[in-house]
Structures are given as C-alpha cells and as structure tokens.
Amino acid sequence: MFTCKDSVDLLLEYLEGEMPEEQAKRLEEHLGDCPPCVDFLRTYRATPTLCKRALQKQMPEELSQRLTDFLRQNCKKT
Amino acid sequence: MPEQVDVDLDRELLTQAQGGDLPAFEALVERHRDKVYSVALRMTRSEADAAEIVQETFLSAYQHLPEFRGEAAFGSWVHRIAANHALMRLRHRGVVQAAEEELKTPEFNERGSWADYPASDWSRRADEKVLDAELGQAIQQAVDRLPNEYRDVFVLRDLEGLSYEQIGEITGDSVPAIKSRLHRARLAMRETIDRFYNEQ
C-alpha cells in the first residue's frame, strides 16, 4: 500500500502519464482513500498555471524601441 | 486553430527574412520579443540583463537565419537561444544562491502520512480572472529564492513549455535530473501558494 509520502514523490511521473500501469493503479487506490492527497494533487497540478499567470511580463515600450533601433543598426552590418 | 495560424505565419515571415527581407525579420521580433524578454527576466532576475539578452538573442538569430531549417518553430528556437544566453551570464556571474536544503517540501510522519493535513484545495482559484497582486508578489519572491538550477528548470518547463530534451540541450543535464529538480521546485512553489491561501 502506498503512503502519502510515496504518492507525493510520484506525482510528476503520474501526472505525465509515464508511470507503469501497475504502479499507477496502486497510487490511484491510495488517492481513492486519501482526500488530503487528492487536494495535494490538485494544487500541485494548478501550481504552474498560477505561477505562469503571476509572472507574465511584457517588454516595456522603451526597451522595445531600443531593440528595434539596435537590430536596424546591427542587422545591416551583417 | 490559432496556434497553427501563428506557426504558419512565422514560417512565412521566416522564409521572407531568410531571403533578406528585414521588415519580415522585424515582424518576427515583434511577435516573439515579449516571450524572449520574459524568459530572460525570469532566469536572470535583472531587467538590465534581460534587455541585453533580448538584443543578443535576436541579433544571433538574424546572423544564423541561413542555417535555420525550420524543423523547430521559430519561437522555440529563439527561446532556446535566450535561455542559453541567460545561463551563460548566470554562470559567468557566479551568483550566490539559496541552498538546496532551503527548498520547502511537505512533511510526513514516520509512517509516511501527512504531518500536517493539507488545509484547503485552492486549485480552482488558478482560473480566477484577476490574480491577487499580493499572491503575484509572493510567487515572484519564491521564484527568486529558488536555487539557480531549480529555477532554470522550473522557468523553462513550467513557464516556457520547453520539452525535457530541449532543457537538457541547454543545461547539459540528464532528463531524470531535470525531472527531479522540476518536482522539487514545483513542491516549493506550491508551498508558497498554499501558505498564501491558508493564511488569508
């Protein structure tokens, strides 16, 4: 029987569908009996989405202009 | 399918740029500069470095246009150039980084069960339209605290969507090592978000 620690250790492999079938079945048995691990799985899976949203950055307008000027000047030389 | 349209337009612009059409290259730059800036900023955490990396990346892309055969998408190609430039800078700078042991991971008792019962499932909040500004700040600080080799993998995989193989080409690490770091980085980031929602 898998423990909560086992299930957390194996989450990445499980969510990417790379786990052997037998092991995935044992993990799912554990999840079926363990609501905290299900909550953990959901929040682990949501983490990249939230981080991506929080860290989206647009290039400042002034930098974009500098980039255009830089490339116009240097691309001509090559 | 918008993504396919994007890739097709990139291919068209790329062919024109390879034929010496500078405005076509500028159009490619305009389409990809935000993402290139973003990856450089996330990896170096310096606006000045990120600005220089964007310039180096697109100049290098321009100089190597004739060799680019288009097996990969233009976007992935410039991403990888930017990530390489960022890594070179970080290695050259030899930044003092957080120790690996400082990465927050869940705690279990001797039977392998939760020491603390996870308090709430906030996963649905990831879809909320407006992201809390304080949460955004907490996430930024947590990414900054990740040791470099963990942050690089987390940024390249989870934020930029590169494959494990592409990350391996950039960092020189094996796929199992990359996966192991990604898992620990994700656990640390999850802890930060969990603390935010549970302390509110």
What does this structure look like?
The complex is a heterodimer of chains A (78) and B (200). Chain A is 78% helix and 0% strand. Chain A is built from five helices and no strands. Chain A has helices at 4-9, 11-15, 21-33, 35-54, 61-77. The longest helix of chain A is centred in the middle third of the chain and has 20 residues, at 35-54. Chain A starts with a helix and ends with a helix. Chain B is mainly alpha-helical. Chain B has helices spanning 2-18, 22-44, 47-63, 74-93, 133-145, 148-159, 164-171, 175-199. In chain B, helix 1 packs across helix 2, helix 2 (22-44) crosses helix 4 (74-93) and helix 4 runs parallel beside helix 7 (164-171). Chain B is elongated and about 65 Å long. The mean pLDDT of chain B is 87.
SSE order of chain B, one letter for each helix or strand: HHHHHHHH
Give a short account of the largest sheet of chain A.
none
| Helicity range of chain B | 55-70%
Gyration radius of chain A, in Å: 23 Å
Low-confidence stretches of chain B: none
Overall pLDDT level of chain B:
87
How would you summarize this macromolecular structure in one to three sentences?
The complex is a heterodimer of chains A (78) and B (200). Helices cover 78% and strands 0% of the residues of chain A. Chain A is mainly α and 78 residues long.
Q: What's the arrangement of secondary structure elements?
A:
The complex is a heterodimer of chains A (78) and B (200).
Chain A: H1 4-9, H2 11-15, H3 21-33, H4 35-54, H5 61-77
Chain B: H1 2-18, H2 22-44, H3 47-63, H4 74-93, H5 133-145, H6 148-159, H7 164-171, H8 175-199
